[in-house]
Inverse folding.
């Protein structure tokens, strides 16, 4: 009987030592450990208890991926387990992906070597003691998505010199969330002084300013390039200016927010990404056909142009990206089969018309 009991204890101990479903190397080179829950996974600690990292160390700058592959299946990384990195003193920085929606209790507590953390823009909740006693942390950026920071979340992080809080509605705070100096600089969005001065009354040094920025991308770098000419600087001047420069043979079409201005000046109220879309130049047939001369319809999965021949037809997706260019061959032309969706059809250089393929 004693032998059987001893064998069972060994078996349970062996199972307990593997507190995860699989492991994988992170983009930053460290091995991370995961538990599977349906099509998603949570990052966890590898040992039998949450105190594993107190005896070992994961060094360097850690990037947690937004997805991970195991055995041919790709899982979305949507959470980090409680105490997953607690006591991991070798970590110097952590980047949490936008796929993660909350940071639970004690996740990074006692990571004394941690100097910076990037919190993903989907995180709504920072749990109790999540970064407690991260004594090397010098600055924190709270993303716009955060609604609640629970008790002791940054307790013992006494080296914090600056906090940037992006939410326009101040996140609610639990007890003793911060213990850094009350005069720590707290950067907040324009017009939010009343909210923060009441709800975050532990602090005395709030600075209202432009905490948002603008970035731009080209929908197709072969068709044109983009640039930010000026970022918003102050609450009194919250405007940015962006521009798009088409490549030879193309012209600027529109920005992803629908504007056709170029350069484009606009008021910034949040972190903003704008994408510029371009279209192919052509002067053929500009005046040879008028909108009243033709009609655009659908037939099954085809677009039918009636009433014009030898005219250029361009088809764009709903975002204004050029998909294909055709030329009508006779008075009624059926264009090739399209998948279901919303399209913009332009004849010559006239305004595009929206069609829906069902």
């Amino acid at each position: 009987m004693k032998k059987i009991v001893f064998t069972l204890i060994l078996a349970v101990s062996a199972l307990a030592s593997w507190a995860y479903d699989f492991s994988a190397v992170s983009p930053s080179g460290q091995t991370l450990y995961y538990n599977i829950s349906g099509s998603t996974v949570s990052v966890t600690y590898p040992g039998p208890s949450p105190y594993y990292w107190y005896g070992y160390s994961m060094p360097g700058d850690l990037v947690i991926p937004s997805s991970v592959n195991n055995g041919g299946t790709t899982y979305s990384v949507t959470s980090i387990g409680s105490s997953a990195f607690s006591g991991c003193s070798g970590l110097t920085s952590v980047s949490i992906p936008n796929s993660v929606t909350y940071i639970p209790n004690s996740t990074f507590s006692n990571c004394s070597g941690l100097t910076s953390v990037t919190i993903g823009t989907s995180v709504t909740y920072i749990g109790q003691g999540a970064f407690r006693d991260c004594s090397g942390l010098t600055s924190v950026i709270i993303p716009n998505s955060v609604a609640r920071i629970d008790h002791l979340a940054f307790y013992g992080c006494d080296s914090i010199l600056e906090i940037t809080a992006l939410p326009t509605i101040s996140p609610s705070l639990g007890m003793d969330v911060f213990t850094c100096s009350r005069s720590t600089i707290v950067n907040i969005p324009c017009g939010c002084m009343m909210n923060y001065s009441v709800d975050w009354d532990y602090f005395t040094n709030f600075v209202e300013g432009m905490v948002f920025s603008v970035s731009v991308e080209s929908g197709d770098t072969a068709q044109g390039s983009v640039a930010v000419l000026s970022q918003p600087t102050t609450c009194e001047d919250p405007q940015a200016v962006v521009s798009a420069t088409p490549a030879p043979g193309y012209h600027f079409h529109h920005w992803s927010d629908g504007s056709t201005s170029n350069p484009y000046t606009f008021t910034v109220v949040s972190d903003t990404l704008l994408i510029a879309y371009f279209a192919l130049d052509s002067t053929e047939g500009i005046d040879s056909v008028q909108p009243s001369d033709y009609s655009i319809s659908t037939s099954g999965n085809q677009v039918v142009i009636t009433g014009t021949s030898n005219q250029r037809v361009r088809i764009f997706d709903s975002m204004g990206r050029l998909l294909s260019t055709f030329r009508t061959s006779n008075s009624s032309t059926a264009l090739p089969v399209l998948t279901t969706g919303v399209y913009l059809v332009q004849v010559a250089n006239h305004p595009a018309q929206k069609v829906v393929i069902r």
